[in-house]
Structures are given as C-alpha cells and as structure tokens.
Amino acid sequence: MRADGLWRQVDVVQSTGSTNSDLVARAAEGRQAEGVVLVAEEQTAARGRLDRQWTAPPRSGLFFSVLLRPVEVPVARWGWLPLLTGVAVATGLSRAAGVDTALKWPNDLLVTVGDEERKAGGILAERAGDDGVVVGVGINVTLRADELPVARAGSLALAGALSTDRDPLLRGVLRSLEDWYGRWRTAGGDPAAAGLQETYAAGCATLGRVVRAELPGDRSIVGEAVAVDGDGRLVLATAAGVQEPVGAGDIVHLRPA
C-alpha cells in the first residue's frame, strides 16, 4: 500500500461466510473509510449474482472485497463499477499471471482451457449505505480439474498461467483496480471519457455473438450482442430489426465469436 494510494487497509481472514457481506456490514456501522480490502482464504457462503453460491477449496483462489465511495460520480453511473472491475481484473491478471481473461457481460471472468471457454471468476457489487459500494471478486487460481465445482468452470492454472502465487496476483489486480477506478472517478464516471467503455468492449467475449438474454419475469430475448452502451447495458440486435438494451439478466452465449 502506498501512503497516497487508494488502498489504506488490507485485512486477511482465514475463513468467513462472505467477504462482501462482512464488508457491507462494517460499512453500515459507519466505521470504514474508502479503500478497505477484505481478503479471505476461504469463503463458506460466497454469493454471485441472484444469490447463487460460489464454492472453492480453501486457499485455491483470490476471494476479496473492496469498499469504494465514489462520491464525485453521479449514482446513475455506479452501474459501471462491476464492468470497471472486470476490466481491471483482466488487465491485472494478464500482467501478473500471463493469462488472457475475457469478460462475459455483465460480471463473469472467462479463461480458455484447451479450446473451451470456461468461467474462472465473477464479480458482485452491492450498495453499502448511501455513499458506498462493496465490490467482491472471486477467482479460481489453482483448482485442478477434479476440484472444479462444475465441469464448465475453469481456473488460472488450467488455463496455463505462468504464475499462481496469490500474493502477487492480488497486488497486480488491486493496482489495476486503483488505476481504472481513478480514471473513471476523474472523468466523473463518464465511461467514454475514462476510456473504460472502449476497453470493456475490446475485452468482452459477449460482443459479436448471438446470445439469449434471460430476463426477469420469465422473459427472454435472442439477438446479436452488438454494443455496450453508455449506461453499461448490453445492446442486442434482434431478428425483428430492433436494438434492445438489456440492463439486467442472465446471458447465454449461443454461437462462438
């Protein structure tokens, strides 16, 4: 940690239910400033989007949450934080682990194992009081094939990472997150001015594919993912000739890029 940097406190615990839940609770008590990082060697009740469970053996990955307070940014633009974190993680892992990580909209981290695209991590952002956001990251680092929770999962080790030492990987990801968060905040949350919108699109494996968006209310849309708009929504071009922005939902890749 640098004296003038974003990260002012890094706490490491051996085991907890969820680093996100813990940090949200601490922020609600009003005793946590921006820049706190909570790292767990093991999470027993980790959550993804829609309260899905995330499981991994102890000390097999990076499991951490950070507290951010982007007070200079309009709340309407805070939806970019999960996408920003995805860009930062992909950039940090490329440098520190020598492995390419693609982004599946809105919050999955993909690696290539053999010739197959697999999920190796995810991101979850949650509000923490009126002016805070806790962003959690889970990344499978050293998991072997027999340790994967599901067959379609992956890990950095299985993707041929040059390094699986979790300490430099965490440092690399946090440096990258500090950099991208600083750019975005300086730009007032404008994703185009910060270079974030363009960089996210360049690393997004969802764009250019035919996908099915499974939406709330048992509704779904099939179309080609053609863009990520200024609000961070995925834009689908449907067979009916219209472009539909999707702000929330599960995305299923139907055709390889």
From TrEMBL:
Protein EC: 6.3.4.15
Keywords, comma-separated and alphabetical: Biotin, Ligase
First and last residue of the signal peptide: none
BPL/LPL catalytic domain sequence ranges: 1-185
CDD domains reported for this sequence: BPL
Gene Ontology molecular function: any one: ligase activity
Origin species: Streptomyces marokkonensis
SUPFAM superfamilies to which the protein is assigned, alphabetical: Class II aaRS and biotin synthetases (SSF55681)
Enzyme class: ligase
Protein name per its UniProtKB record: biotin--[biotin carboxyl-carrier protein] ligase
InterPro entries, alphabetized: aa-tRNA-synth_II/BPL/LPL, Biotin_CoA_COase_ligase, BPL_C, BPL_LPL_catalytic
Pfam families xref list: BPL_C, BPL_LplA_LipB
